[in-house]
Specification:
The complex is a heterodimer. By secondary structure, chain A is an all-alpha fold. Among the domains of chain A are: 46-185; 191-228 and 243-274 and 383-493, no CATH class. Chain A has 21 helices and no strands. In chain A, helix 1 runs antiparallel to helix 2 (29-45). Chain A starts with 5 loop residues before the first helix and ends in a 13-residue tail after the last helix. Chain B is of the alpha/beta class. In chain B, strand 1, helix 3 (75-82) and strand 2 (86-90) form a beta-alpha-beta unit. Classes of the chains: A mainly alpha, B alpha/beta. The A-B interface holds A 6, 10, 187-188, 190-191, 194, 411-412, 414-415, 418, 463-464, 466, 468-470, 472-474, 476-478, 480-485 and B 1-6, 8-13, 16-17, 20, 149-150, 153-156, 158-160, 163-164, 167.
Chain lengths: 494, 357
């Protein structure tokens, strides 16, 4: 099920909220947890019930492992369980996400002819696997208790964060499940949730989906793109990806708040960053946090212990971002993207030629983000090279006009384009460019302004006015009217 | 303050969605709830989205039934020729069962005096179940109100369809008879159509008539049941011409006899019924061999549509019920002869490199 669908907003969510608060009101704590888990599993298996076996299998494996860690604390070294747990989870993820990639490359290198399995990537597998890896490691590090099965299942399956994050840690969510005051309906939290959800829905439906039309058109016709079109596509994809994923995360946080729970933020105005390192502290930072805690820090400590600090200073960011790239998808373009990010981080960490925060550092980071997203969006190496060549070997064919004309599909522009077609068809190209410029300008203003958390914090200080309620209601209603063609979130693919 | 905010938020959201719903219900560009408002024209441009609404809510006494081949008829030609008020029930690449599904719906809402059914041989070889449930616009087809929100809360309807309906009603020329017509956007010429057809380089063994798929008879019987249920309706069934290139392909694919057998079964089963007239144009030399009339091997231009209506009005091409077997044999022989001559000899004039036996 998708957050951006009428069935979710007007049927699933109200039933879920009513059931949750009703059972808690009656003090049926366990029943409420079971209800929430059941609804989350229904949400997960809505389009493909067979996925339920996978997620339940994954939960079962990790829960049993946690139980064994508890029972064999004095007899078996936790390192053995950690190795078993991490490798078990990675094998699970590896089979569903990377098996065909591995076969393809084996066939290519060794000229073999192994058959591809054509495995369809189960939704959210990358997210709930990482979440459980973190739990198992914490169990072995003795920083996490063994929870009840009901709490653990509710933690992994809690639907607002199940499909595409944020990557919530057990220590952030399960203690909230256990707090009595969180189970009572809190109007202030519910209001915050509604605002977050509406803003997120608007970001996704009203902005990301519009830029998606242009980006998809460009990548479908990648053989014809010229330099301006390539830069335009890469810029538009950066905007699309940001509004799509941050919109999803705002919705997730908002849904959490509707249930009374605080989920971690995942974005903090990343396009205002002044270095690549700064960018990754603002973009998808629950992933950055996971990688830092479970990969970067242990590797750095290892470097210090082995007295190879300098080597590890260079090696660790590269390795972490190569893994991050590969985590995003089974394709060499993601690995290259990861390497590119790693180099960006190393450049950010340099000691010499450091610049003070200024327009130049912001612009440099922004351009870096545009180029890296061109790599990220390219499905094949061939397309990536085509894209980069178009960006860096200047040539102009006028393809930008054709690209911009794909905006004729946007209902908001329909009337103005039809009228112009009748009045002066020769000006259509310029009209489309003008419309695109307006879109980019609006996006820039939104990006430059306050993010969802800042808006909320500002409003909490200044008070919720009628005008603010009207603005949120219009964003929500206009988004609902735009759901007739439901589109999926980009991060469902990762 | 929170209480007041949430109250405002909910009230304004409901008001916005309600306003959108009311606008859609008022203008109803897919005619799901009512016929066009008195000051608006019946703008019919989105076949799949609008056919069901017109059948449910328009006032009419005749139905023009067919696939994409029949979409370029002008309703007014039938209205004037037969003194009727017609609507179209069309489905591109539709099955016979899809069209009968539409017809059933028409009978639920109106008394039908005439059905003009353009028989597409493709459609009677299709399964006898309808295909609407697979469509993303099924909410316009089914009768449940629970999915109407997909129509009522729809930005495309508000920003595209309603303005278009208003523009056609007040500012642009729009002929209501030309519902679902698409000929304006296509090129009909020998050159254009020949780019769509390449004769097969070999001849498959000709299948026997007896090898015909039983589904053809099932489709014919389904139509027969519908006809028998409605003796008050005059069914004018007609086989429009297909280009000689379409028939050439049937010949080369070894399915010519199968197609002719389908026609034979159809006519034999239905022609004897009192309220049925069947017209046959699959032997019209001038319409089938004049490739300038086509955009591809089956889709002809509006001149052919107009000619067919005139012929039906004049009862030209009507298969006489007396001596049915002999008449039918003659008709099918004339088609067979024309196709065979073309596929084995005349094709070289159009395709000099085509393989002939």
């Amino acid at each position: 099920m998708l957050f951006n669908s009428q069935i979710f907003i007007f049927l699933f969510l109200p039933i879920c909220l009513l059931g949750w608060y009703f059972l808690n009101h009656l003090h049926f704590r366990k029943s409420a947890m079971i209800f929430l888990t059941g609804m989350s599993l229904f949400f997960y298996g809505f389009y493909n019930p067979s996925y339920l076996i996978l997620i339940l299998g994954s939960i079962g494996f990790n829960y049993v492992l946690s139980f064994l860690i508890l029972k064999t604390k004095k007899t078996i070294s936790s390192n053995i369980w950690m190795t078993l747990g991490v490798s078990g989870n990675l094998l699970f993820l590896g089979y569903y996400k990377y098996f065909d990639f591995f076969i393809e490359n084996t066939n290519f290198i060794f000229k073999t002819d192994f058959a591809l399995q054509h495995i369809i990537l189960p939704l959210g597998i990358s997210f709930f696997t990482l979440q459980q890896v973190s739990y198992i490691i914490d169990r072995c590090w003795e920083t996490a208790p063994h929870y009840t099965l009901v709490d653990y299942m509710a933690f992994v399956t809690f639907f607002p964060q199940l499909i595409a994050g944020p990557i919530v840690l057990h220590s952030e969510l399960i203690p909230q499940f256990q707090m009595e005051e969180k189970r009572k309906f809190q109007l202030s939290s519910f209001v915050d949730g509604c605002i977050y959800f509406s803003l997120g829905l608007g970001k996704k439906v009203l902005i990301a989906d519009v830029f998606a039309i242009l980006v998809n058109e460009g990548f479908e016709k990648i053989y014809y793109i010229d330099t301006p079109a390539a830069w335009l596509m890469a810029l538009c994809y950066l905007i699309e990806l940001y509004f799509d994923f941050s919109g999803y995360c705002d919705m997730a946080v908002g849904l959490g708040k509707m249930f009374g729970f605080d989920l971690p933020q995942n974005f903090k105005s990343p396009l205002k960053a002044h270095s690549v390192q700064d960018f990754w502290q603002r973009w998808h930072f629950t992933l950055t946090r996971f990688l830092t805690t479970y990969l970067y820090t242990p590797l750095t400590i290892m470097g210090i212990r082995k007295n190879k600090r300098k080597l590890f200073t260079y090696l660790t960011p590269m390795l972490v971002f190569l893994i991050s790239g590969f985590w995003h998808g089974a394709s060499w373009t993601f690995v290259i993207w990861g390497a590119f990010q790693g180099l960006g981080i190393l450049w950010s960490q340099r000691k010499k030629w450091k610049l003070k925060k200024s327009g130049i550092t912001w612009f440099g980071t922004f351009v870096f983000a545009i180029i890296s997203n061109a790599i990220f969006r390219s499905e094949t190496i061939d397309n990536m090279l085509r894209m980069l060549k178009a960006m860096f070997v200047p040539h102009v064919t006028g393809f930008s006009f054709e690209l911009a004309s794909s905006l004729s599909e946007v209902p908001e522009f329909y009337m103005i384009t039809r009228v112009m077609e009748i009045l002066n068809p020769n000006l259509m190209d310029f009209l489309y460019l003008l419309l695109l410029s307006c879109l980019l300008l609006i996006s820039a203003l939104i990006l430059k302004g306050k993010n969802a958390a800042e808006i909320l914090s500002y409003r909490q200080d200044k008070g919720y006015t009628f005008l603010f309620a009207a603005q949120i209601a219009v964003i929500f209603s206009w988004s609902v009217l735009s759901l007739n063609q439901v589109s999926t979130f980009l991060y469902f693919n990762f | 303050m929170n209480r007041k905010f949430i109250k405002h938020l909910i009230l304004i959201s409901i008001s916005c969605l309600l306003l959108a719903s009311l606008l859609v219900i008022l203008f109803d560009p897919f005619y799901m709830y009512h016929k066009p408002l008195p000051f608006l024209k019946a703008v019919l441009e989105e076949r799949d989205y609008e056919v069901m609404g017109t059948l449910r809510n328009f006032e009419y006494d005749s139905v023009i039934l067919g696939t994409s081949v029949a979409e370029n008829y002008n309703n007014h030609w039938f209205d004037e020729a037969f003194q009727v008020t017609s609507v179209k029930a069309m489905r591109a690449s539709g099955r016979n069962s899809d069209l009968l599904f539409y017809l059933e719906e028409a009978y639920r809402h109106q008394e039908i005096s005439h059905v003009f059914y353009s028989i597409d041989l493709f459609s009677i070889f299709q399964p006898t179940t309808h295909t609407f449930e697979e469509e993303d616009y099924y909410y316009l087809i089914n009768n449940t109100p629970f999915d109407d929100f997909k129509y009522l809360w729809n930005k495309d309807i508000l920003l595209k369809k309603i303005p278009l309906q208003l523009a056609y009603s007040f500012f642009l020329d729009y002929d209501e008879g030309e519902s679902y017509n698409w000929y304006q956007e296509k090129t009909f010429s020998r050159e254009a159509m020949m780019t769509h057809y390449f004769p097969l380089s070999s001849f498959a063994p000709m299948q026997e008539a007896s090898e015909i798929d039983p589904v053809v008879m099932e489709n014919i019987l389904a139509l027969k049941d519908m006809i028998l249920e409605h003796p008050e309706t005059e069914f004018q069934l007609f086989f429009p011409p297909s280009s000689i290139l379409w028939w050439d392909n049937e010949y080369r694919s070894g399915t010519l006899e199968i197609k002719l057998e389908a026609i034979r079964l159809f006519v034999t089963e239905l022609a004897p019924l009192n309220n049925v007239s069947i017209y046959y144009y699959q032997n019209e030399d001038s319409l089938m061999k004049n490739l300038d009339l086509y955009m591809d091997s089956v889709h002809f231009n509006q001149t052919v549509n107009k000619t067919l209506v005139e012929k039906i009005k004049e009862k030209q091409g009507l298969i006489k019920k007396e001596l049915l077997d002999e008449t039918l044999t003659d008709l099918l022989n004339s088609t067979r002869e024309m196709v065979t001559n073309y596929a084995t000899k005349e094709i070289l004039q159009d395709y000099p490199t085509a393989v002939t036996p």
